[in-house]
Amino acid sequence: MADEPTHSNPHDLACIEEVEIMTEYLEGALPTAEARRLERHLETCPGCTEYLGQMRSLAGSLGGLAEDAISTHMRDRLMAVFRDFRSSP
């Protein structure tokens, strides 16, 4: 069993924490201090840097997707899945 990543500085973010706040970071909704901590983490973590690039690419490809492009039923189902995912341990 692999150990979870740790950092010598307790103010640094572990990878799992970084992933949890990535959307807020990309939306510019992350408080400045948290964004700076995340950016310091990214400077030393190629895996998280790659993940950030993938998220940016995905967001860019979906940028032209209009809200009415999917049915109300499908949107409700997707929102339910996202809510369940965020609330799972």
Structure characterization notes:
This protein is mostly helical and 89 residues long. It is built from 4 helices and no strands. Helix content is 66%, strand content 0%. Helix 1 (15-27) packs parallel to helix 3 and helix 2 crosses helix 3. The longest helix has 17 residues, at 46-62. It is elongated. The model is unreliable at 1-9 (pLDDT under 50).
Give the C-alpha Rg.
Answer: 16 Å
CATH class: Mainly Alpha
Distance separating the two termini: 19 Å
Indicate the multimeric state: single chain
Number of domains: 1
User: What profile does the largest beta sheet have?
Assistant: none
Strand content of the residues, in percent?
A: under 5%
Rounded mean pLDDT is 77
Instruction: Give the SSE string.
Output: HHHH
Number of helices: 4
Q: Spans with pLDDT under 50 lasting ≥5 residues? A: 1-9
Structural class of the secondary structure composition? mainly alpha
Q: How much helicity do the residues have?
A: 55-70%
CATH topology: Arc Repressor Mutant, subunit A
